[in-house]
């Protein structure tokens, strides 16, 4: 009895450990231990023993840790944590006003210094920043779980490729058109669906993303199926970034430069960087406007908002369409960057990756999403030897983040308000 | 005519299996109001366990069909049930009082973990099981014929037996009564001395066991599977659960059969390339026009 009041109950910890070990043996034993090979199999008892040992050790440490004073305090903090936003004092000056100009200047100089390889990775990172920002409006701000976000991304990418092939539309005309197309698709999908319960929305959007992918795969006469379609490169006032232009002079001849394939990446990078900045600015302003406030209020308490006269369908629809159009923009950049699109780029895994970006970065936090997008897209490029474990890591990340910090690593801050001096009290 | 009849037979077997998986969705939704996104992947794990059990049993020299099928079923159901328990304990129980969005994201994470874990440990290539039961009954219909394989008959028999046992457990046993009480009012049930955490765990185990039964049956019939099979069949089973009315057990079975039949008819008569598109569109249409499903009660918002 004295063990329970103070000190560590080693007996209970050992019991937990044995139970965990047995469960690990049942769960991991067959799947890890027996490697199927046709109708034959080979055994790997060493791996199973290692996994079971790790699980038992982990469980023992956890069991002992939660019994120490520090562990108890930790558990208490976890159960009573405050998930709200941080409200800064009204006269608080954000450090962003100094950091942002520096980031912009570095961002604009960087492509001329960086190697082509680094540039391509950074472009990919920026595309995911765009996707993350789009999904962050839908999931983070409006609280609508959209699992088919990749569908809008596909609409943008295929919009550019097929628009060029069938209608001769180039990058610049498709950029706004793709955003509009994706927004319309978002409205058509969202209008009937947004009235219903949040969980259903997740499944319906998941179904929508899969429908888009299956149609792209099976409608071979129009989309060329799994073979894909080639997408055009952007042009600078009609100057093409090719070695030889079919019509008119290419970019490098016009300026009398030697041909370099990096030019097109530099150009895509700069356009993309400016678009990301524009989206960031729009989002920053929107969250301070009534519509942005309405998104967050609706996320927190739908019934209260509807009682106060907010049209919940229109408010959600605006978030959904705005997120979708950002996804469409990202799709155009992806298509022109790859020069080629096919349905395998738009699987559910992409949606999950974008969701992981939003979850890691912090729901509703812009800075967090930008950082998370770079971390999750650039890191796999650096750690090629762990490529097999990438999806596993994303999965673990989602579960752990939801248990440990459901609002993401970067907390959302909001400027406080105070009555101005001299106003009537 | 013979195509329609043949597709009806195929659809009925497929649908009864969808119904088995849909039970897992519908029970979990009924008791804690969450969509267990990882359920399709639990089914996928059970496909692998089926192949492993068959390989082990043949290795130890057991060749007769009843022994293999019985051993495989017990092994797969026990291990998959353990998966259900562990998943609930690790990924869902710590989030019991969090927002629904958090639990759903955690479930998606769990689904990714299961897929990638199986892919890493068993490889990405397709796996298979040997055909255990051959032979078929043939009926002549007009110019053609309708063929019912013994395997399909066995699937129908096993699926309906499984559903019967489950209905008995839920309706007649003490565990079933506690499950229903927890579903109706979790707080009240715990005040009356029901360990609701344990009941929720056992619901996950029951759901996983039903998915395991479905996994054994489908794997024996189709013979081939990979680590990605859980995704599509998971969405379809969810469609079945929603069609029948999520939270309702007879609804899940009915929804499964209706979905299986309509999908098989669509594939046979219109286009088999678009049969998945058909199922997903059906899901969207049901959710828009009748979100409470055929047998479900409409959801009332409480303040």
UniProtKB/TrEMBL annotation, chain A:
<keyword id="KW-1133">Transmembrane helix</keyword>
<dbReference type="Pfam" id="PF02653">
    <property type="entry name" value="BPD_transp_2"/>
</dbReference>
<dbReference type="Pfam" id="PF11862">
    <property type="entry name" value="DUF3382"/>
</dbReference>
<feature type="transmembrane region" description="Helical">
    <location>
        <begin position="48"/>
        <end position="66"/>
    </location>
</feature>
<keyword id="KW-0472">Membrane</keyword>
<feature type="transmembrane region" description="Helical">
    <location>
        <begin position="138"/>
        <end position="159"/>
    </location>
</feature>
<protein>
    <submittedName>
        <fullName>High-affinity branched-chain amino acid ABC transporter permease LivM</fullName>
    </submittedName>
</protein>
<feature type="domain" description="High-affinity branched-chain amino acid transport system permease LivHM N-terminal">
    <location>
        <begin position="13"/>
        <end position="109"/>
    </location>
</feature>
<dbReference type="InterPro" id="IPR021807">
    <property type="entry name" value="LivHM_N"/>
</dbReference>
<feature type="transmembrane region" description="Helical">
    <location>
        <begin position="317"/>
        <end position="340"/>
    </location>
</feature>
<keyword id="KW-1003">Cell membrane</keyword>
<feature type="transmembrane region" description="Helical">
    <location>
        <begin position="98"/>
        <end position="131"/>
    </location>
</feature>
<dbReference type="InterPro" id="IPR043428">
    <property type="entry name" value="LivM-like"/>
</dbReference>
<keyword id="KW-0812">Transmembrane</keyword>
<feature type="transmembrane region" description="Helical">
    <location>
        <begin position="18"/>
        <end position="36"/>
    </location>
</feature>
<feature type="transmembrane region" description="Helical">
    <location>
        <begin position="387"/>
        <end position="404"/>
    </location>
</feature>
<feature type="transmembrane region" description="Helical">
    <location>
        <begin position="171"/>
        <end position="193"/>
    </location>
</feature>
<feature type="transmembrane region" description="Helical">
    <location>
        <begin position="262"/>
        <end position="282"/>
    </location>
</feature>
<dbReference type="InterPro" id="IPR001851">
    <property type="entry name" value="ABC_transp_permease"/>
</dbReference>
<feature type="transmembrane region" description="Helical">
    <location>
        <begin position="352"/>
        <end position="375"/>
    </location>
</feature>
UniProtKB/TrEMBL annotation, chain B:
<keyword id="KW-0029">Amino-acid transport</keyword>
<dbReference type="InterPro" id="IPR001851">
    <property type="entry name" value="ABC_transp_permease"/>
</dbReference>
<keyword id="KW-1003">Cell membrane</keyword>
<protein>
    <submittedName>
        <fullName>Branched-chain amino acid ABC transporter permease LivH</fullName>
    </submittedName>
</protein>
<feature type="transmembrane region" description="Helical">
    <location>
        <begin position="253"/>
        <end position="271"/>
    </location>
</feature>
<feature type="transmembrane region" description="Helical">
    <location>
        <begin position="150"/>
        <end position="170"/>
    </location>
</feature>
<keyword id="KW-0472">Membrane</keyword>
<feature type="transmembrane region" description="Helical">
    <location>
        <begin position="199"/>
        <end position="219"/>
    </location>
</feature>
<dbReference type="InterPro" id="IPR052157">
    <property type="entry name" value="BCAA_transport_permease"/>
</dbReference>
<feature type="transmembrane region" description="Helical">
    <location>
        <begin position="67"/>
        <end position="87"/>
    </location>
</feature>
<keyword id="KW-0997">Cell inner membrane</keyword>
<keyword id="KW-1133">Transmembrane helix</keyword>
<dbReference type="Pfam" id="PF02653">
    <property type="entry name" value="BPD_transp_2"/>
</dbReference>
<keyword id="KW-0812">Transmembrane</keyword>
<keyword id="KW-0813">Transport</keyword>
<feature type="transmembrane region" description="Helical">
    <location>
        <begin position="42"/>
        <end position="61"/>
    </location>
</feature>
<feature type="transmembrane region" description="Helical">
    <location>
        <begin position="12"/>
        <end position="35"/>
    </location>
</feature>
<feature type="transmembrane region" description="Helical">
    <location>
        <begin position="225"/>
        <end position="246"/>
    </location>
</feature>
<feature type="transmembrane region" description="Helical">
    <location>
        <begin position="277"/>
        <end position="296"/>
    </location>
</feature>
<comment type="similarity">
    <text>Belongs to the binding-protein-dependent transport system permease family. LivHM subfamily.</text>
</comment>
């Amino acid at each position: 009895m004295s063990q329970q009041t103070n000190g560590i109950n080693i007996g209970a910890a050992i019991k937990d450990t044995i139970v965990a070990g047995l469960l690990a043996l049942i769960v991991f034993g067959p799947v890890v231990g027996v490697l199927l090979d046709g109708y034959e199999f080979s055994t790997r008892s060493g791996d199973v023993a290692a996994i079971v040992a790790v699980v038992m050790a982990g469980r023992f440490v956890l069991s002992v840790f939660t019994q120490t004073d520090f562990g108890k305090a930790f558990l208490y903090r976890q159960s009573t944590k405050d998930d709200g936003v941080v409200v800064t004092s009204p006269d608080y000056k954000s450090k962003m006003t100094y950091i942002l100009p520096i980031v912009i200047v570095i961002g604009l100089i960087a492509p001329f210094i960086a190697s082509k390889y680094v540039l391509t990775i950074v472009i990919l990172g920026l595309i995911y920043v765009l996707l993350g920002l789009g999904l962050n409006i839908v999931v983070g701000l409006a609280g609508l779980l959209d699992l088919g976000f990749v569908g809008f991304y596909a609409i943008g990418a295929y919009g550019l490729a097929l628009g060029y092939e069938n209608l001769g539309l180039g990058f610049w005309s498709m950029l706004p058109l793709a955003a509009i197309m994706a927004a319309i698709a978002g409205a058509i999908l969202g209008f009937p669906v947004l009235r219903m319960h949040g969980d259903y929305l997740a499944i319906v959007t998941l179904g929508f993303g899969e429908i888009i992918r299956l149609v792209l795969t099976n409608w071979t006469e129009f989309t060329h199926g799994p073979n894909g379609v080639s997408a055009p490169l952007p042009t600078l006032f009609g100057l093409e970034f090719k070695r030889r232009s079919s019509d008119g002079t290419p970019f490098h001849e016009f300026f009398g430069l030697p041909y370099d394939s990096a030019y097109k990446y530099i150009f895509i990078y700069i356009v993309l960087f400016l678009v990301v900045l524009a989206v960031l600015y729009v989002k920053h302003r929107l969250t301070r406007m009534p519509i942005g406030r309405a998104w967050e209020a609706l996320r927190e308490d739908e019934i209260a908002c509807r009682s106060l006269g907010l049209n919940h369908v229109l408010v959600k629809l605006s978030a959904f369409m705005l997120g979708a159009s950002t996804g469409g923009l990202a799709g155009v950049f992806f298509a022109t960057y790859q020069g080629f699109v096919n349905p395998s780029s738009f699987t559910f895994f992409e949606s999950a990756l974008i969701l992981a970006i939003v979850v890691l970065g912090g729901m509703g936090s812009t800075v967090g999403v930008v950082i998370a997008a770079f971390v999750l897209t650039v890191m796999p490029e650096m750690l090629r030897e762990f490529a097999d474990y990438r999806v596993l890591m994303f999965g673990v990340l989602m579960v752990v983040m939801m248990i440990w910090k459901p609002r993401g690593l970067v907390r959302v801050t909001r400027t406080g308000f105070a009555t101005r001096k001299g106003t009537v009290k | 005519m013979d195509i329609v009849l043949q597709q009806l037979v195929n659809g009925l077997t497929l649908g009864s299996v969808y119904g088995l998986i849909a039970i897992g969705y519908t029970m979990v939704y009924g008791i804690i109001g969450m969509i267990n996104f990882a359920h399709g992947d639990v089914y996928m794990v059970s496909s692998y366990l089926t192949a492993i059990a068959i390989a082990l049993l043949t290795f130890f020299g057991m060749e007769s069909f009843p022994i293999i099928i019985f051993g495989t079923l017990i092994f797969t159901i026990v291990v998959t049930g353990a998966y259900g328990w562990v998943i609930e304990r690790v990924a869902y129980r710590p989030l019991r009082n969090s927002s629904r969005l958090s639990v759903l994201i955690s479930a998606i994470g769990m689904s990714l973990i299961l897929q990638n874990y199986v892919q890493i440990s068993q490889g990405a290539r397709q796996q298979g099981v040997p055909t255990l039961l051959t032979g078929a009954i043939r009926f002549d219909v007009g110019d053609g014929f309708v063929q019912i394989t013994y395997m399909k008959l066995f699937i129908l028999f096993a699926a309906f037996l499984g559903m019967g046992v489950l209905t008995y457990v839920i309706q007649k046993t003490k565990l079933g009564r506690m499950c229903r009480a927890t579903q109706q009012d979790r707080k009240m049930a715990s005040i009356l001395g029901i360990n609701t955490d344990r009941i929720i765990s056992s619901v996950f185990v029951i759901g996983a066991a039903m998915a395991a039964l479905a996994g054994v049956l489908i794997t024996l019939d189709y013979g081939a599977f990979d680590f990605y099979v859980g995704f599509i069949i998971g969405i379809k089973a969810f469609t079945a659960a929603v069609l029948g009315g999520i939270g309702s057990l007879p609804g899940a079975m009915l929804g499964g059969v209706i979905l299986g039949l309509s999908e098989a008819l669509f594939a046979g008569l219109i286009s088999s390339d678009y049969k998945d598109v058909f199922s997903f569109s059906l899901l969207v249409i049901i959710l828009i026009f009748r979100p409470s499903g055929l047998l479900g009660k409409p959801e009332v918002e409480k303040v």
